[in-house]
Write a structure and sequence with these properties.
By secondary structure, the chain is mainly alpha-helical. It has a single domain, classed as Triphosphoribosyl-dephospho-CoA protein (Orthogonal Bundle), CATH 1.10.4200.10. 61% of the residues lie in helices and 0% in strands. The protein contains 15 helices and no strands. It starts with 18 loop residues before the first helix and ends in a 16-residue tail after the last helix.
């Protein structure tokens, strides 16, 4: 009898770090990259600093590492409370809402394969805990509207996915719960990977991926604070920066700096915070799936 070769079953790449470490590194690397309009090294806001973000990253990593045991809603609430206790401000609510479901996926599954199952298991208890976390973070969260306003008690007995569905048209983080994290898995993560593959250091790869996301998807935080027309204007300007040749580098950097200045004006109300949350989640995907490790080059040689 002929022995036929067995077909090997593809296994997801193994992460170089535990899940909690992947979460901490993703937040640290996202905030350290000099992305236009966001808090970063040497560019604080009046009420939130770079040190607040890196402290929060260290605080929430171990909590996210226990998501599979504690549940998604409990993890988000615990991480928000720990961040508030440590720094007294919200630095990571949107990121936590994205990382917690990803951190709950078993390590033997790819994130793309496992996220649907994790989301389908969210229940009414998760909804109440997440609503409580949003309220305690003192953040806009999913917006202040007549239906399913996150500033109060959930108005219906339903899963967290049901609650997110009500906000998905106006909030890109909520939309991930409805579309299986499409913008995280199919845009943010591979775009960072592509930029690294083109020879960029990690910092500039993150910046370019942020610009691509912002050009494609108007930022939800800007839209909530300033209106959708301003959010679309920010997207148009991000697209213009992307269209600017990177050689000579001085011209590209000048255009990027102009965009950064515009985003930081008006009391930082044009801060593309939702886009930065998606970037952090994209970095987590790459770390969790073993597609990214500690970079030998973070800043490119021409970084000031």
């Amino acid at each position: 009898m002929t022995n036929l070769p067995q077909t090997a079953v593809a296994k997801p790449p193994q992460p170089a770090y535990p899940v909690g470490t992947c979460a901490t590194l993703s937040i640290l690397w996202e905030v350290t990259a000099p992305k236009p309009g966001n808090v970063t090294r040497g560019a604080d806001f009046e009420d939130t600093t770079y040190v607040d973000f890196i402290t929060g990253a260290a605080i929430v990593g171990p909590i996210l590492g226990q998501t599979r045991s504690n549940g998604i809603g409990a993890t988000v609430l615990s991480a928000v409370r720990a961040t508030q206790q440590a720094v007294g401000t919200n630095t990571n609510l949107g990121t936590l809402l994205l990382l917690a479901p990803l951190a709950a996926i078993p390590p033997e599954e790819s994130l793309a394969d496992g996220v649907g199952t994790v989301l389908s298991q969210l229940d009414e208890h998760d909804t109440h805990l997440v609503y409580q976390a949003i309220g305690e973070a003192h953040a806009g969260g999913l917006g202040q509207v007549e239906e399913a306003d996150v500033h109060g008690t959930p108005p219906f007995a339903g899963s967290l996915v049901d609650a997110m569905r009500l906000a998905s048209e106006r909030d890109l983080i909520a939309r991930q719960y409805i579309n299986g994290f499409r913008e995280v898995l199919q845009c943010a993560a591979p775009w960072i990977e592509q930029e690294i593959g083109s020879g960029r250091g990690l910092a500039q790869a993150i910046v370019r991926a942020q610009l691509r996301l912002l050009a494609e998807y108007p930022d939800s935080l800007i839209a909530r604070k300033c209106g959708i027309e301003v959010a679309r204007l920010a997207s148009d300007q991000a697209a213009e920066v992307l269209a600017c040749p990177t050689e000579p580098v001085e011209e590209y950097q000048h255009r990027l700096a102009d965009f950064d200045f515009w985003l930081r004006s008006d009391g930082h109300r044009r801060n593309p915070g939702t886009t930065s949350d998606l970037i952090a989640a994209g970095l987590f995907v790459l770390l969790r799936e073993g597609r990214l490790s500690c970079p030998h080059v973070f800043y490119e040689q021409n970084h000031d």
